[in-house]
Write a structure and sequence with these properties.
Layout: E1 7-12, H1 16-31, E2 35-37, E3 45-50, H2 55-71, E4 76-81, H3 82-86, H4 88-92, E5 99-101, H5 109-113, E6 123-125, E7 138-139, E8 146-150, E9 152-153, H6 164-168, E10 172-173, H7 176-187, E11 193-197, H8 212-219, E12 227-230, H9 240-248, E13 255-257, H10 265-271, H11 277-290, E14 295-302, H12 309-321, E15 326-331, H13 349-372, E16 377-387, E17 390-395, E18 400-403, E19 412-421, E20 426-429
Helix pairs in contact: 7-8, 8-9
Length: 430
């Protein structure tokens, strides 16, 4: 009688970079005879790939650990990712956790899982972040028709609110040649779209004499891939050359996600950002002048220490006048070992919530305005999945579209007539 396969479940928090790494790790387990199941199912092993950008991410990680142990008291639980790097000792003291792996060791997850001894204390494998130098490529696959390709890791920036350099270390990447080997492999899997991701993708290749623009040019020649997108990119690293090249490309989509964080130059300086509002406005105008249909998403932080009502209103009015498509709004979260933690001048939580609510409302209005421009027009849509009784996909410029379900259209690109605004998406017909 054969031994049943061990069931393993992954839960991934945070950024698309984490998703690409979880996907790569899960494929390794499947190749070694494990059965991957949904995190909500009963599993023998639960892997939690954590984020630690906000305090909420920390709390969510703890909740997930408790849930997994309730599902199967006899399961093994491993915690990896940014929270594991920053708070390894704290996690090791959480009841039910068997394994904690820092940033360097998480890529040896399989080896460590197979050596877990449930009768012993929690195993912690952790290195000082200064000793983390290797770049481990990864990509997501089989989750959707879109694949997230990790091209870069770590960050050399010293933004005063951010723990990422502490969790992921210095900026690093592989060569264009090595990156293209993985991209070509991905192109043979049937995915239609690749999203280039990393912590700071604009810094790609800076330590080996290469650049993101050179990689973009190479990837533009990929066969069997219809669409390529850039994930979040710093405004000071999104060069005129990149914008102009992507504008002329048939594969690179008219869609950018460009963090702003604040519309007050005073706050940007306190954050130690590498641009001001004048530079940012010029960048947005440049993109829109080339192609008015380009979708632009923006990250904003509210309630940063020292942000007065006047500073916030500068942010609000700045965003109001910008031709952007949506916002990702974050309430400032105090993080240990960051410079901002010691600034003082804390903004009350209620005020942070109020400011966040105002920007979320503005984001909805921006998105509606952007979406409404495409009503009663046709746009090519890559259909991804059936959800909530509708077939869901995105246009080239990242308008979310739903149609009545036609299963055979999953992972296909179709010209779609857009006829109704549903709020979070447009309804269309083929």
């Amino acid at each position: 009688m054969s031994t049943p396969l061990k069931r393993i479940a992954f839960q991934t928090m945070g950024c698309k970079l984490n998703f690409s790494e979880s996907s790569t790790l899960s494929r390794e387990f499947i190749e070694h005879g494990y059965e991957k199941v949904d995190y909500r199912d009963k599993a023998d092993i639960y892997i939690i790939n954590t984020c630690s950008v906000t305090d909420n991410a920390d709390k969510e990680a703890r909740k997930l650990i408790r849930q997994a142990k309730r599902r199967n008291p006899n399961s093994s639980i491993a915690v990896i990712g940014c929270y594991a790097q920053l708070k390894s000792k704290d996690i090791a003291n959480i009841e039910g956790v068997d394994l904690v792996l820092g940033s360097e060791e998480k890529f040896n997850l399989l080896e460590h899982i197979e050596n877990i001894n449930l009768d012993k204390n929690t195993m912690v494998k952790w290195s000082e972040i200064e000793h983390v130098h290797d770049f481990k490529p990864s990509y997501s696959f089989n989750e959707r028709t879109r694949s997230y390709l990790k091209i870069q890791d770590g960050c050399d920036y010293t933004c005063t609110f951010c723990t990422i350099p502490l969790a992921r270390g210095k900026s690093r990447s592989s060569t264009i040649n090595e990156t293209m080997k993985i991209a070509k492999k991905l192109a043979l899997t049937g995915v239609k779209e690749i999203v280039i991701t990393g912590v700071n993708i604009g810094d790609y290749g800076s330590y080996n004499g290469e650049s993101l623009l050179e990689l973009i040019r190479e990837m533009d020649n990929l066969k069997n891939i219809d669409r390529i997108r850039l994930s979040s990119i710093e405004p000071n690293l999104l060069s005129d050359e990149i914008i102009e090249y992507c504008h002329l490309s048939q594969r690179f989509m008219p869609h950018y996600h460009i963090p702003l964080q604040s519309g007050s130059n005073k706050i940007l300086k306190l954050m130690r950002r590498r641009y001001n509002t004048e530079i940012y406005r010029s960048l947005i105008n440049k993109i829109k002048k080339l192609d008015g249909d380009t979708c632009i998403g923006v990250d904003v932080i509210v309630g940063f220490p020292g942000e007065s009502d006047a500073d916030f209103m500068k942010t609000y009015e700045f965003l109001l006048e910008l031709d952007i498509s949506y916002l990702h709004v974050f309430s400032y979260s105090e993080r240990l070992n960051t410079d901002a933690y010691n600034f003082g001048s804390s903004v009350p939580k209620e005020k942070r919530l109020e400011r966040s609510r105002m920007l979320h409302n503005l984001s909805n209005k921006k998105r509606d305005y952007f979406y409404n421009r495409y009503l009663n027009k046709k746009r090519k849509v890559l259909f991804e999945t059936i959800k909530g009784g509708k077939l869901v996909g995105h246009t080239d410029n990242y308008v979310k579209v739903k149609i009545d379900p036609i299963p055979e259209l999953v992972n296909s690109i179709k010209q779609t007539y857009l006829i109704n605004n549903l709020g979070d998406s447009l309804f269309g017909k083929i």
